[in-house]
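New to this. Please check this fold:
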Amino acid sequence: MTDASPAVTYQDLQAAAARLKGHIPEARVIPVPELAEALGAKEVMFVVDTPHPLGMEGAQHAGNTFKLRGAANAIFCALDARQGEEAITFVTASAGNHAQGVAAAVRRAGERGQLKEGDKAIIFVPETAPENKVENTRVLGGRFVEVRKQGKTFDDTKRIATEFADGKRATQFIPPFDDARVIAGQGTLGIEIFRHCTPDYIYAACGGGGLAAGLEIAAGHDSNKTRIIAVEPLYVPSAVRALMPTGAESRPVSHYKNRPVAGGINVSKIGDLPHQILANRQSGVATVTAEMIEYATLMAMDILKPHAGEDPLHEYTAELSAGTSLAALLNTPRNLLKGRSIAVIIGGANPEWEQAKLQCQVEQDTADASGDKRRNWNEQPLTDKVEAFPRMHALGTWVNMDKLVVPPHAGLPI
């Protein structure tokens, strides 16, 4: 692909925004001045992305709205393009959040009279998917959705779903990220961010790359200075593998615990279309460890607590997949943050952990790393928490961020 004939354009994002208007509330941008001061940045803003779908406040939340945006745009496009009276079966595979997005979008279409008799969604989820996400998918979809738990991993589940949909008449497979309609829908989050501010960096968790690709398209139109930093776990560096400069060296990092967390972004290969979009722009990629993700997620929850209840449509929480974005910000070399405007996308109202248990884990990990006695998390000021963050220093992996590339000692398990 070349920029002369992009597969997804800014006009596609605008069309998606118009299509989704009235279905999804805007994400909220929350300034965090105390964090900006601790990092030496000009400003840090949390982009909170966990609201209920509009008109469905009686139902559960829909995970990340960027997932709902992408799924809804793809489904509404398919319904608009329908010819004849034949019923459509929407099929997808998801580890959780995309499943909830598809379920909410199909139910939304049904309740607004956009579905015909027999229209439905069949959603395949891995056998290991968190039960709260699976149950929430059923609640969100209601009578319009069937959930099937098949496959040990997301890749297994995707294969099963694809084979099920392949060759069937009037069946629409809705990929979680590798689809122009999905990317355009997820990219509407970028339009909203640039309506509020023009950040130097936008940090976003990356699994299949759909959100990062959509943000890149929005940034390419609205701001030549904004870099999108796609963040993924160190133990599954699919974006780094795809975007690493040719000839860059790496070596294993076995001394870091290979403790998988953030299941929503444990994807072995980013999508082909997101890869094409990210490779043609000024994308940055960062990797973070499990310990860093847990620490940052707990910190995000602390920062969001004072804002809880300000808007009945928002439920301010963060799951481990979303905590990766803040982890990467905290791991960024301070000289790159000085005087910068930064947006961090925080979302996912489906925490896979008990907060008290996570707090104990973080307190113990911090004590083990520093050699100091264990300190109560709740008694520490934010500045102390920032300083105690388990940074990787030279092992922080960056691609195309202010002309930095992956160094030979980047320590990637490739």
Observations:
- Confidence is low (pLDDT under 50) at residues 54-60, 247-258, 399-414.
- Strands lie at 28-31, 43-49, 89-93, 120-125, 145-149, 171-173, 201-205, 227-233, 284-288, 341-347.
